[in-house]
Specification:
There is one protein chain. This protein has one domain. The chain has three helices and 19 strands. Strands 2, 3, 4, 5, 8, 9, 13, 15, 16, 18 and 19 form an eleven-stranded mixed beta sheet that branches. It has a four-stranded mixed beta sheet with strand order 1-17-14-12. Strand 2 and strand 3 form a beta hairpin.
Length: about 280
Amino acid sequence: MHGRLLFASLALAGASGCSANVGASAELDAEASAAAAAIVIERVTGPDGTRSDAKARFVRGRAGPLTEDVLRFLALDEAPPPLGSCVRASGEVPSVPVGGLRLLDVGKVTLHADSTAAPFELSKRRVPDVVDVVSGVIYGASRLDVASRAPLEVRVAGEPELGPVRVAIEAPGDVGGLRMDGHDPAHPVAAGGDVELTWEPSAEREPISVDVTAIDGEGRRSTWRCGQLDTGHATVAGALLGDGDGIIAVRRSHRTTFRSAGIDKGELRVDFVRELPYTRRR
C-alpha cells in the first residue's frame, strides 16, 4: 500500500558567523584533525534530456576537529525523509562554520564506471581565500556517462593532504514511466486536488523520495521532499502543488559511508532523478 504524502514542516537551521583571523595554534590543531568528505553523483532526466554531474569536497575545519557545522555544510547531516512524511527544503546554502573551512587538495579523483571504460577524472578548481573563511580545492565534472545499475568506484589519490581512498557503490535503476493522473507525460496537467503519480517500481522496494517544487507567478520556488517506498504509486496532496506550475521528481538514491586515513566521516551518494514538469489547471 502506498503512503499518502502529507504536509510536514522542518526548520532547517544553519549556524552563522565566521572568524577573520585564525591563530597559529588553531591552524596546527586543524592540521592534526580529521577531515570529512562528500562525493555526490547525480543524473537527472526530464523532458529536455539527461544531464549528469559529480562533485567532491574534502573538508577540514580551520578551528579544530569536525563539528556539526562542518557536516551540515557538506550536507552529511541530512537524511532522507522518514517514510510517509515530508520535509520542506530551505533552498539556502548552509552557513560557513565558525572559524572557516579548508577544502583539501587530495590529488586526482577519478570515477570508474565499469571494468573496461576509461576512468573519468574530476577536474579541480582552487577557491580563493575569502578573509580566511573558505579556501582550497573543489572537484567537479559534468556530462558523465553513468548507466542504470552500473557498478561504480571512486578513487582518490589522497596526496598531499590525506591517504588514498577507494569506495564502491552500485548506481540506482532508472525511474521509468512516470505519469501524473495517467496523463501523457509530455503534457501533464494537475487538477485542483490531490494527484496520483505512477512509475515503474523497483523490485527491491527501497526507500525513495518524491520532490514537489511549486513555482509561483513571480518565479519563487517552494520545494517539499517526501519519503516513501518505491512501490510505483504515490498520492501527492494538492496543497503541496501550489497555485502555479511546478516540477515533480522521483529520486532514487544509493549511498554508502566510508572512513580512511585522515577521513573521519565520508559519504558517496548516487542519485537518479526523473523530473516531470506540470501545469496547474486553473
